[in-house]
Amino acid sequence: MASPSSATVEPAGPNPSTKPTQPESAAPRLSGAELKKQKQAEKAARRAQTIQEKQAGVPPAAQKVKSDTTTGAKTQQKRPSSAAAPRDLPVRSQRPAAAATPEAPKKEDKTVELFRHLYKPRVTSIAGAGKDVHPAVLALGLQMSSYTICGSCARLVATLQAFKKVIESYATPPGNTLTRHLTSHVLSPQIEYLAACRPLSISMGNAIRWLKLEISKVDIDVPDAEAKKGLCDAIDVFIRERVTFADQVIASSAVEKIKDGDVILTYAKSSVIQRTLMTAHQEGRKFRVIVVDSRPLHEGKHLAAALVGIGIEVKYCLINGLSHNIQDATKVLLGAHAMMSNGRLFSRIGTALVAMEANEADKPVLVLCETIKFTERVALDSIVHNEIAPADELVIPGGPLEKWGDVKKLQLCNLMYDVTPAEYIQMIVTESGNVPPTSVPVLHRLGNESQG
Fold first, then answer.
1. Fold of 113-245
2. Residue 350 to residue 337: CA distance in whole angstroms
3. How far apart are alpha carbons 141 and 147 in whole angstroms?
4. What does the alpha-carbon distance between residue 122 and residue 113 come to, in Å, rounded to a whole number?
5. What's the pLDDT score for residue 54?
6. Cα(430)–Cα(246) distance, rounded to whole angstroms?
7. Are 165 and 140 in contact (CB under 8 A)?
8. Helix 152-168 crosses helix 135-145 at what angle (to 10 degrees)?
9. Cis peptide before 296, with omega less than 30 degrees from 0?
10. N or C: which end of the chain has fewer CB within 10 A?
11. What are phi and psi of 339, to 5 degrees?
12. pLDDT at position 448, please?
């Protein structure tokens, strides 16, 4: 019988306290937290790899390989479409650059900033003109734009003559009256076209206001034929009284200021000055004339040719010879585009220089001007209100400015008018009498009262 101490009893089952031995080569089992941490690290690594591939210019889909290094790790199932055909996503920063097309050089702005508000394109052809514009007005606009008709009074008379043709061909539509329809629907398109060809002169504006007033006075009960005849007759009377007779009266009055032996200096061309000098020559007065001219219009050439044609001794010079020739003059006669309400003279550019040189040389300055050119406007300078002509008119073919548009930072400004201060003017000769510059608003008011 064996001793209980020496006997060994084998356990019937495995001892739960004894851990089974595992082979050394087997990977240790990871907990859920460790698997999650490992998954995040792999995701961060793939993200970093994708960024590096983008920076290297390689599409991420071409280099993507499915990783199965972790045993027992949960893998997310991908969509069949993306797994079967990976998309080639474009990289914004590495988009292939398009072939650089040479850009046309930006055209330099040749507008003079100080006078920018005066720049307006001129109409130089009938292309684009409204269907309501009368053929006579179309022709007149082109003549004004090309300086074929130049001068304040010449443009005024031509405009009224064209409007006379418009009125003669007008027929009042059914259901309308001549008074209400003619001004707004017929005359307005004509005026707009003329203003597009060249800005209206002060005298033209005064005449247009007078014509509109006359149309408004027409009785609606008067037949159209009689009303149109009355308006055409009124236009003829207006031209005869305010322009033709006015020039005759001014010439007769100014001739009395010319004495034998005088040397008359004038600038550019004025129709009333030309009439005055011709009348003085016809009356037998002995005098000489100095015509000062300037580019680009050279209006003085026409005046000098007309005076030479009747036998008057004429000296012609450009404005750069003014300071020398002003010493020989005894009187200075100037024309006017308009007389402002503060007594200043608004005339062809260069007139102010002539008046200042005459004042410096102590020579009397006389302005010959019809009252139709008077205005209630006030001018302190020639910047706010003026007219800008095309700069190419200053260019001489073959001269140094022929290609001025290609020269950087070079601008040409072709102003049409300037303002002469009242203190440089001794007398204004009008059809209403000889007055000082301070009397301009009085004569303008009297002229408006007589028209009303």
1. Four Helix Bundle (Hemerythrin (Met), subunit A) (1.20.120)
2. 13
3. 10
4. 19
5. 76
6. 8
7. no
8. 170
9. yes
10. N
11. -110, 120
12. 75
pLDDT for residue 262: 95
CA distance 254 to 431: 10
CB 334 within 8 A of CB 369: no
CA distance 158 to 148: 11
Q: What's the pLDDT tens digit per position in 374-430?
A: 999 999 999 999 999 999 999 988 888 888 888 888 999 999 999 999 999 999 999
Written as six digits, the tokens of 172 are 């009042």
Helix 152-168 to helix 202-216 angle (10° resolution) is 30
Compute the distance between CA of residue 241 and CA of residue 306 in angstroms, rounded to an integer: 25
For residue range 227-249, what is the model confidence (pLDDT) as tens digits? 999 999 999 999 999 999 999 99
First to last CA, the chain: 163
Cβ-contact 334, 267 below 8 angstroms: yes
> Dihedral through CA 125, CA 129, CA 135, CA 137, nearest 10?
-80
Strands 433-435 and 427-430 turn out to be antiparallel
Quickly name the fold that domain 250-451 has: Rossmann fold (3.40.50)
**Which residue is listed with tokens 């052809």?**
125
Interhelix angle 224-239/202-216, rounded to 10 degrees, is 150
CA distance 172 to 215: 13
Three-class DSSP category at 437: helix
Q: Cα–Cα distance between 417 and 201 in angstroms, integer?
A: 11
Say how many residues make up the chain. Answer: 452
All structural domains of the chain with their residue ranges = 113-245, 250-451
C-alpha to C-alpha distance for 420 and 439, rounded to whole angstroms: 16
Which phi and psi angles does 332 have, rounded to 5°?
-120, 120
Take residue 161 and report the two structure tokens written for it: 């003559």
Considering only 50-54, 150-154, 155-159, 409-413, which range has the smallest mean pLDDT?
50-54
Question: The tokens 């005459």 sit on which residue?
Answer: 358
Instruction: Go through 162-200 and write b for each residue having 16 or more CB atoms within 10 A of its CB, e for each that does not.
Output: bbbebbeebebeeeebbbebbbeebbebbbebbebbbbb
